[in-house]
Structure formats: structure tokens, C-alpha cells
Amino acid sequence: MLGAGAVGVMARGPSQSVPMGSSGLNPVEVARNFINADSNRDGELTRAEASRMGFATMSFEEMDRDFDGVITRAEYGDATR
Q: Could you identify which of 18, 52, 61, 65 might form a hypothetical disulfide with 26, taking C-beta atoms 3.0 to 4.6 angstroms apart as the criterion?
């Protein structure tokens, strides 16, 4: 019998996995890529910031859906689905 503080106890409950998008990245990885590239933390990626992205499925122009010269987190998220 195991006492208090015993090692080897299995957690029970729902799976903690996060589904992957068609890009092969899960939403956490998508957010991490965006945050890491957003050097000034303004919530938008300039062309220079986007060039530092670890992963992109489209060109800057394709991700910039509203043609305002920056990529928002929503635009990047849509591009990785």
C-alpha cells in the first residue's frame, strides 16, 4: 500500500491533448509563434516581424487579408488552419 506523497499515482479524467490544425500546429503553437515574432508586443506583425516567424503557410500578402500592411493574430490564425 502506498503512503502519503507516494509516487506513481495516475491522474484520471479527460485527455489533455489539443487538436492540430491542417498546418500541423495546435492553437498553442500558433499563438506562441505569433507572440515570439511580435517583437514590439503591439498585437500585429509588420513584414519585418513576420519574416522572423517560425512557421507560415502563406506569404505575407496572402495572410494580410485586409491589405493594411500588418498581420493580426486572427489573420495569422486563419492562415494556419
A: 18
Question: What's the rounded Cα separation, in Å, for the pair 77 and 54?
Answer: 14
pTM score, whole prediction: 0.67
| Residue at 61 is within a domain | yes
pLDDT tens readout for residues 35-50? 999 999 999 999 999 9
C-alpha span between 16 and 18 (Å, rounded): 7
Residue with cell 503557410: 57
The strand ranges marked E within 1-81 are 44-45, 71-72
Query: Cell 494580410 sits at which residue?
Result: 64
Tell me the three state secondary structure of residue 67.
Answer: coil
Q: How many domains does the chain have?
A: 1
